[in-house]
């Protein structure tokens, strides 16, 4: 369990918005949806690297602010017919604290979904 | 729970589109069974002409493969014609005895070709042009026989004739009318078409009525005899004189039919369990034969089958194009004209161009184009929207080009463009890419082309060209967007309906809008949320709480996001005036925050590029301390008031244009708008401030002020229209405020004043602003009321800590 990193208080995440978490090596966008689910996605659109954290969140999708690609927050996949995948990270919320597991490339769902476009 | 059973009779385009729409919105609701009389899966009937002409194969035009039916769990019965519907027991029975029970039945039986009731109509070698087997028969005949006669000079007949000619046959077209395609073309256009087809080798026999088809020695047809005694030899006769809705099955089951199966606006027949779509249907007395209206029907029928119960089909306006390579023609609406109408005509027979538009009560009611058809889509829009064209009547025939047209030159013939021709300059999409996507992905609509190719999805200036490519590729039965344009995919409601509901209900929160108008998504999308946020803010100033998460990032962060994720900062300079103290403050800020680039903008401001989001509040604090407020260069808002130096310095100046510009900017700054909004004040008619390409422009003259509206630079340059002339600065302020408020209340979100003025017509705006003094005063009052809530500097607020988290990055180091 030591690889879970505390990143923010749940209440510090804006509903239907995101916060940017800068690690040494990677910039991650942490989203909170209208139904209070939390997702973490690498803050770079698979299209041209746009900052997904700055996009409009609707349902479990975010629309990239640069060219309007829509990215599924749960899988990182672009909505068809666009094709591409942003890396996702596991998150959990416990006692009002949001944790993130960086474990790059180890998240089963993410590698699986991204693999199909590799 | 056991699934409900849906049975569909007919395996054609309209029916299968209904099934596809249904599977999209309510997968798994029904156990679906489909009966098709033909032996093929659903194919694109529109493309039978290219198959006949040898440009495509039958395999190319399949829309739903056999695998697709299997993957979606649909029971498919091919080659089985339904002979009976037992409505009491709710069972259909095929002629071979196969039965299927239904809870809901969808009739999509299409239409039958009409065969002339003349002697010999049943001879071998006499066929219709309706399905794959007809095309196969024609292809076979073309390899064995030489002489073909096509009876019927309409759309279908000419496509058949063209295909047979391409297959090497000697083709004559027989037509009862005095010119071709009289339902789509007037006589001059039809003559041009005939001339063009004659150069391709087709022969025409006009005003000929068929009396008899003659049997030859072999038993096969050998000639066509006419009532006037003439005769023409024929080894193959194709009847293409029209289609009739196929209502035999419905009538035998006692379902009300009247030149089609009669349905209501939800595509329900007189038996509430039975729906019908497609060419077999009669809706409000009209039977449609073009694909776009049928797909609109499919969408509505699917919605009701899915038990959502929203959406009504209210009929369609259709347009026509012919799918014969190298020929461009377009017609829509009442192109013949009659009492109470006027026609504008341009005719240049030697270059093969003909244009006619029909006008009634200052509105376009019909158009007929031959040769240069690039403006077809635009005319079709004007027709559907009922736009008042009186202001641009003189240039109407010459198309939208008077609005300027960056990137693509005048009147290009789409058919003649090479595959490498760039259609969409924003996204670098060539004609070949679009055609390939349309063919490979089987696209039918502009939206689908946008999604798959990105063409026309950015600035939109190439939309007409993309529509033309689409029309030319899918051909005849394409018609443009549905009669009503929904605000976005989350709703069926149009912008106007949403604006009206917010005002009339009244609705004061976004949740209330979603609930009352039955939004299809839980919290909208990136298109509708900013629109709704604007509408609510504009309608309920001081009451509605602005929702930052429904704003595009530029408006949320109060700066323009750049391609690298940094922001640009533009402080407001009233009327473009500045002074050494302000310039020094900007220089200090630029140095302190290491701004990589400083540039003067087109609107007479200074732009600081490359600022990190985290630095914005601190930078704004310094700018605020120096007296600056936000320049709103990032927003759908009042941008800038551009001025020239005016009477104070200029030897030509007639009024204090700079001073007036400052006053106008102080009046209007901070207001949110449907789109960006720019002003300018020029001190004399030399117009150095370029006031005649602004949303609201003032040109000072010796006797007062000319007020101009609805101009813009940008994608399509549009010069303003003169609204009126006034005498005092106070009047300029009032007219400006009133015009701005009218635009704020009635334009669609993301619609600039230029297209808005064209849509509603300058006469309407004059009526509200110039002629109605009380209405103008009320608009101005509402504008000023809203401004007391809008004129709060967002930069100062954020420098003082509002929305702090928006600008902070969480840093975690190992």
Notes on the structure:
The complex is a heterodimer of chains A (118) and B (814). By secondary structure, chain A is mostly beta strands. Helix content of chain A is 7%, strand content 37%. In chain A, the strands form two sheets. In chain A, strands 1-9-8-4-3-2 form a six-stranded antiparallel sheet, with no helix packed on it. Chain A has a three-stranded antiparallel sheet with strand order 5-6-7, with no helix packed on it. Chain A has one helix at residues 108-115; strands at residues 4-9, 17-22, 27-32, 38-42, 56-58, 61-63, 70-72, 88-94, 97-101. Chain A has a single domain (4-115), classed as Rieske Iron-sulfur Protein (3-layer Sandwich), CATH 2.102.10. By secondary structure, chain B is of the alpha/beta class. Chain B is built from 25 helices and 37 strands. In chain B, the strands form ten sheets. In chain B, strands 3-2-1-7-19 form a five-stranded parallel sheet, with no helix packed on it. In chain B, strands 9-16-10-11-12 form a five-stranded parallel sheet, with helices on one face. In chain B, strands 21-22-25-24-23 form a five-stranded antiparallel sheet. The two termini of chain B are 54 Å apart. Residues 402-412 and 476-482 of chain B have low confidence and may be disordered.
Question: What is the fold's blueprint, element by element?
Answer:
The complex is a heterodimer of chains A (118) and B (814).
Chain A: E1 4-9, E2 17-22, E3 27-32, E4 38-42, E5 56-58, E6 61-63, E7 70-72, E8 88-94, E9 97-101, H1 108-115
Antiparallel strand pairs in A: 1-9, 2-3, 3-4, 4-8, 5-6, 6-7, 8-9
Chain B: E1 4-9, H1 13-25, E2 30-36, H2 48-52, H3 66-71, E3 75-78, E4 82-86, E5 91-94, E6 99-101, E7 104-107, E8 111-113, E9 126-128, H4 132-144, E10 147-151, H5 155-166, E11 170-175, H6 187-199, E12 203-206, E13 210-215, E14 221-226, E15 231-233, E16 236-239, E17 243-245, H7 248-252, E18 261-263, E19 274-276, E20 281-283, H8 291-305, E21 319-321, E22 329-333, E23 342-348, E24 353-360, E25 363-370, H9 376-385, E26 422-424, E27 429-430, H10 431-440, H11 446-453, H12 463-474, H13 495-504, H14 510-516, H15 528-539, H16 553-557, E28 560-561, E29 567-569, H17 580-592, E30 597-600, E31 606-611, H18 616-625, E32 638-643, H19 657-668, E33 677-682, E34 696-701, E35 704-709, E36 721-726, H20 729-746, H21 753-760, H22 762-771, H23 773-790, H24 794-799, H25 804-807, E37 810-811
Parallel strand pairs in B: 1-2, 1-7, 2-3, 7-19, 9-16, 10-11, 10-16, 11-12, 18-20, 32-33, 33-34
Antiparallel strand pairs in B: 4-5, 5-6, 8-17, 13-14, 14-15, 21-22, 22-25, 23-24, 24-25, 26-27, 28-29, 29-31, 30-31, 34-35, 35-36
Helix pairs in contact in B: 1-8, 10-12, 13-15, 19-20, 20-22, 20-23
